[in-house]
Amino acid sequence: MNAKARQPTAPLPEPLPPCFPAPAGAAAAAGNTGATWCGQLLISLHQFAEALGEAVDVKDRYTRRHSVVVAELAQQLAVAMGLPPVRCEEIHVAGHLHDLGKIGLADRVLQATGPLSQDDWQEIRRHPVLGYEILRHVPVLAQPGGIAEMVLYHHERYDGSGYPFGLRQREIPLGARIIAVADAFSAMVDDRVYRKGLAVTQVLAELERCAGSQFDPEVIAALLAHRATICGGRRALPQQGGLPVAPAAGSGVARPHN
């Protein structure tokens, strides 16, 4: 099956420019120029995304503040990779929203304290598609390679072993590849019910080990090259976090999901 066959089949809204004009008379009524209106709109979009992300984090007691950390790390990685400012902001917003689909998951799954059943694990894996379905109806979020698709593809893996579609390498939008690294970093430094968070040096070593398989090597290279700026002072979130434990296929040993 090719990559296009795995893409969402629902029609997307017509593309919009990165910043669209204010509604008729709105900017003038507020005494603002179009550029100022655009800036205010982007700020409001970011604030709304942060609020939605925190709503998800409250629902899942193991990931409080996780979305904030992922958003910050993802934006720093995007800047380190030299992406345009608008794209860096989009990735920041997508970081806040990457787990939005967990709103549609059962509380008993999100708040489980032990190993998940295979059925529960399949439930967890629905969250990227659910998040995309929420966001795709908003034109400014639904551009090709934009925020909605970053949410949809953030659990794809560079070698094609991820989900929901098994995309690989550059079939995965760059923003999603960046968020995947930020998400894994946050998950590993955070304390979980079954282990303490790892030291940053351990996390960096694990991310480097998985470059080219789970993660985009270029994103990992940017993280390692700018580790002092991106990782400085980071150890763990101030409270317990992380996803519930998923059972390893064919064994009774629990493994974490990043």
How is this fold's topology laid out?
Elements: H1 26-29, H2 34-59, H3 66-80, H4 85-97, H5 107-110, H6 118-124, H7 127-135, H8 147-153, H9 174-189, H10 200-209, H11 217-225, H12 227-231, E1 246-247, E2 254-255
Antiparallel strand pairs: 1-2
Strand content: under 5%
Helix content: 40-55%
Mean pLDDT: 76
Alpha plus pi helix count:
12
- For CATH, the homologous superfamily is named as Hypothetical protein af1432
Q: Can you describe what's shown?
A:
Helix content is 48%, strand content 2%. The chain has twelve helices and two strands, in the order H-H-H-H-H-H-H-H-H-H-H-H-E-E. It has helices at residues 26-29, 34-59, 66-80, 85-97, 107-110, 118-124, 127-135, 147-153, 174-189, 200-209, 217-225, 227-231; strands spanning 246-247, 254-255. A hairpin with a 6-residue loop joins strand 1 and strand 2 (254-255). Helix 3 (66-80) packs across helix 9 (174-189).
Throw out a few tags for this protein.
two-stranded antiparallel sheet; disordered N terminus; globular; Hypothetical protein af1432; about 260 residues; 12 helices; mainly alpha
Question: Brief overview, please?
Answer:
The chain has helices at 26-29, 34-59, 66-80, 85-97, 107-110, 118-124, 127-135, 147-153, 174-189, 200-209, 217-225, 227-231, and strands at residues 246-247, 254-255.
